[in-house]
Amino acid sequence: MIETKFKFSKNDVVIVLTGAGISAESGLKTFRDHDGLWENHKVDEVATPEAFKCDPELVWRFYKQRYFQLAEVKPNPGHLALKKLEDFLGNNFMLITQNVDGLHEQAGNERILEMHGSLRDCFCTKFGTNFKMQDVDLNPAVPLCKECGAALRPDIVWFGEIPYYMNEIDLVLKQADYFLVIGTSGIVQPAASLAYLARMNGAKTIGVNLVPPENMMFIDEFHQGRSGEILPELVEKWIG
Ligand code: APR
Q1: Dihedral, CA of residue 222, residue 225, residue 228 and residue 232, to nearest 10
Q2: 33 Cβ closer than 6 Å to some ligand 1 atom
Q3: Which of 33, 78, 149, 205 would you call most buried, defined as having the most Cβ atoms within 10 angstroms of its Cβ?
Q4: Closest residue to atom 6 of ligand 1, CA basis
Q5: Are residues 152 and 231 in the same domain?
Q6: Which ligand 1 atom sits closest to the C-alpha of 31?
Q7: By residue range, what is the domain housing residue 92?
């Protein structure tokens, strides 16, 4: 039985930040857990602009593999609970995600800010033209722009690059009554600081994670465990 001291009304503004942990129960690897993606791949070789410059084929291999895996996974009860929360709160809800897997959208959420990009998108390295992966010929080791022939790159925010939607995130953090942090280790900036900023702005912060995250000191109420198991019950309690 899960206990929470909070109850949301439709007038409350609830902002959610998710990380790889929420998709773990869908079968996607997290980054920093045992057997996580960064245990089997070197960050410097696949997730920096320098890596792409040095070996674009290796980088594309990594992201193509992750993109193709999306066909095999579906949202889990943790994602579905957040869809329920958005249905209840409407425009007072915003979901900031570091995930690039699109599972929140698949679950039916609409108010989403994908701050680290998306595995389903790529763009031209010469002119910045955006393409859906599904419309691109992924057979070449480095897929090419069909308009100008330049190399395409995955639309992923790599280490050393600035995340998307920072202005929008700044704005919603100022309005937040509650800030939920789910399935993220609290290590990677700037996402790791959002709980702190929300709290500075007066929001109550709630965490759901398998283990206490690095930014635990900014969390007012923490629920330890799997988000797919805990969130459905918590959401019922918050909005019930
Ligand atoms: N339910 C809840 N939390 C879970 C679950 C689960 N079922 N399984 C794992 N976790 C927790 C882990 O304990 C860990 O604290 O999720 C967290 C995942 O942390 P990371 O692997 O560091 O992933 P994330 O925080 O999303 O990484 C941030 O780093 O590599 C970059 O750009 C990448 O977006 C990513 C960013």
Answers
A1: -50
A2: yes
A3: 78
A4: 226
A5: no
A6: 21
A7: 1-28+75-116+164-240
37-43 contacts, C-beta under 8 A, 24 or more apart:
43/159
Domain match, 126 and 168 both: no
What tens-digit pLDDT sequence spans the chain (240 residues)?
899 999 999 999 999 999 999 999 999 999 998 888 888 888 888 999 999 999 999 999 999 999 999 999 999 999 999 999 999 999 999 999 999 999 999 999 999 999 999 999 999 999 999 999 999 999 999 999 999 999 999 999 999 999 999 999 999 999 999 999 999 999 999 999 999 999 999 999 999 999 999 999 999 999 999 999 999 999 999 999
Distance, CA 9 to ligand 1 centroid (Å)? 29
Both tokens of 158, joined, read 């790599």
CATH code of residue 84: 3.40.50.1220
Catalytic residue among 41, 79, 104, 116: 116
20 lines ligand 1 (CB under 6 A): yes
Active site residue 116: yes
| Number of domains within the chain | 2
Q: Tell me, yes or no, whether 174 and 64 share the same domain.
A: no
Q: How far apart are CA 143 and CA 75, in angstroms?
A: 28
Q: Is ligand 1 within 6 A of the CB of residue 136?
A: no
